[in-house]
Amino acid sequence: MLIAERDKLNAAIAALQGDAARKRPGRPAKNATANTTPAAEAKPARKKRNFSPAQRKKQAERMKAFWAAKRKAAKKAA
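^ thats the sequence. predicted structure below, dont judge the formating
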């Protein structure tokens, strides 16, 4: 009788662990309840930084100069 009870318990344990044991290791499944922690909810959202048109123009000029220098260096190396 004890052996039969042990077999039932082992079968129940195997059934509960069966899904977890068969899954591949890797990134955990997406779970909506796991992502809603009190710390995450308490953080204020970051403000989006916007460039003014003048800032955008200056940045464009800097990037054009950066890529021109990069092309020039690549041309010298080749």
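The mean pLDDT is 81.
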